[in-house]
Amino acid sequence: MHSPADETVEVENARQIFDIARHSKSFVAIPGADHMLTDRADAAYVAAVLAAWATRYLAGTGTE
Fold it and tell me: Torsion-angle region of residue 63: left (phi > 0), alpha (psi -120 to 50) or beta?
């Protein structure tokens, strides 16, 4: 996940990390968010997307 407004990690660096990462992955843009997700709405959105993404890979672990 990355915000184009992130002043800590530029989008090019985020793309490099994404390209290097292996296995299952998704790139989610979070326009307007800062690096630390200080806006509660941004943090809640990231948490919900991450939880939904992880659920697929936790199937069969009793967390369904």
Answer: alpha
SS3 19: helix
- For residue 59, CA distances in Å to 21, 54, 62, 63, 64 come to 22, 9, 7, 7, 6
Per-residue pLDDT of the chain (64 residues; tens, 9 = 90+): 889 889 898 888 888 998 999 877 888 999 999 999 999 999 999 999 999 988 888 876 554 4
Which residue, chain included where needed, has tokens 């919900």?
48
Q: CA–CA distance from 20 to each of 2, 7, 64 (Å)?
A: 15, 21, 30
